[in-house]
Amino acid sequence: MPQPFSRTLRSLEADSRTTTLVWIILALSLLLVWSGWFFFARITRYEDSNILTAADRSSIEAEFPAEAMHTIRPGQHAFITLAPQDAPDMADAEADTVEAVVAKIPSRHGDRPGIVRLFLTDVPAIPLSRGQHLDGKVAVATGTLSPFKLVMQASGLFTESAKIRLSPRQSAQQRAR
User: Fold this and answer.
1) Cβ–Cβ under 8 Å, residues 141 and 47
2) Least C-beta-crowded within 10 Å: which of 38, 85, 91, 150?
3) What is the Cα–Cα distance from 76 to 135, expressed in whole angstroms?
4) Tens of pLDDT along 64-98?
């Protein structure tokens, strides 16, 4: 049923510019804060691997895919999470996380996976012996980028940098081609 004309006029008269202006200012300030975060916040990007071998008591070697080798450099910080020897399933037990630094990368890696040596800065709870396969994972901090650049790289619009892998399966499927 349509509104009577007199009620419509009263509704228009009751509407104030102040309320509308407050809501517009609130919305614009929220948009401004979000835009500032989107363009200027810093997110750390990690390259990860779960193929680990003990090189000696103070270093670990990890195999990274060829795409990751273009961003890993000596001196970058890494976090190594090792599963206890008696519980290789990391979900069932408390893992030991140690810090490390990238020490050595292969000089020529091409399109093949590369072996990266990491020096441990902390002592792991698990004793290490040369050549021992380790259950765990390593994450190397390869740099920081803004959410804007992250979205652009994921969409493939920044051609000067590698496209971001969104899942481990994605890189395995690309290698199979």
Assistant:
1) no
2) 91
3) 22
4) 988 888 888 999 999 998 887 665 555 555 678 88
